[in-house]
Amino acid sequence: MIDFCRAFVRAFAQLTDPPVARVLGYAVLLGVGAMVAVFVGVGHGLARLEAFGSTWLDPLLGLLGGLATLVLGWFLLPVLLVALVGLFLDQVAHAVERRHYPELPPPLVAPWWVGVGRTLRFLLLVLAANAALLVLWLLPVGYLFAYYAVNAWLLGREYCDLVALRQWPPAAAAALRRLHRGERFVFGLVGAVLLTVPLVNLVTPVLLTAAMVHLVQGWSRARAQAGGG
Fold first, then answer.
1. Which residue in 102, 116, 149, 174 has the fewest CB atoms around it within 10 Å?
2. Which of 26-35, 40-49, 93-102 has the highest mean pLDDT?
3. Alpha carbon 17 to chain centroid distance?
4. pLDDT tens per residue across span 83-94
5. Helix-then-strand count for the chain, H and E
6. Cβ(14)–Cβ(210) under 8 Å?
């Protein structure tokens, strides 16, 4: 737990580094842009629905649409932001490795389309998982529990792979991921909670990336020491 907290403290301390701050700027712009697009789109759709001419139905539709937009913005947009910013997070990992782990060999270089494919795959998985969770809206407690559990698993897996695949081939990265599945879930749970905090959710993808670099390096060193012993 001490290593876990130290990873987040060190990650937070590096948010002002120029390479990290630049990606942070991208995250803020994407987040704000996505929120504006959703609210404008929903507002336009609601305006088109106000064709019933009813003094009670139109206001009701407006109220329900506003509530739906609020829920969408609160729970879904932050998770989508993680996928949208994913293309830039390698820059954050590189900055953390260069500052704290200069002894690491150069990262494994993958073609650009591999990164794009991984981002699209994660985006589709996030959309599918969170769309499936919408059936629990009538059970608020169940929805919240499922939302945090599912997204904790998704975030823990995605960020572990993002960092581990920079230094190890897929098989080795998957072995490390399986070995620390419990810590990954806790990590993802922290991320899922932070993503539902307004404004904080805009910096969360960058913070999670930096923290995961420290965690993966700690796991790798502990594994090496255990093997050497």
1. 102
2. 93-102
3. 20
4. 778 878 999 999
5. 10, 0
6. yes
The DSSP code for 157 is H
Q: Are 88 and 23 in contact (CB under 8 A)?
A: yes
Q: Are 34 and 77 in contact (CB under 8 A)?
A: yes
- Checking 8-12 for CB contacts under 8 A at 24+ apart, the result is 8/190, 8/207, 8/211, 10/100, 10/210, 10/211, 10/214, 11/96, 11/207, 11/208, 11/209, 11/210, 11/211, 11/213, 11/214, 12/207
On whether the pTM is more than 0.85, the answer is: no
Q: Is 39 helix (H, G, I), strand (E, B) or coil?
A: helix
CA angle 178, 131, 121 (to 5 degrees): 50
Beta-carbon count within 10 A of 59 CB:
11
Q: What pLDDT score was predicted for residue 87?
A: 79
At 52, list the tokens: 């019933």
Question: To which residue do tokens 């905090």 refer?
Answer: 197
User: Which of 154, 184, 20 has the alpha carbon at shortest distance from 93?
Assistant: 20
- Among 187, 127, 200, 128, which residue's Cα sits nearest to residue 153? 187
Contact 163, 180 (CB under 8 A): no
Question: What residue spans of 134-180 are helical by DSSP H?
Answer: 140-164, 170-179
User: Residue 54: left if φ>0, alpha if ψ -120 to 50, beta else—which one?
Assistant: beta
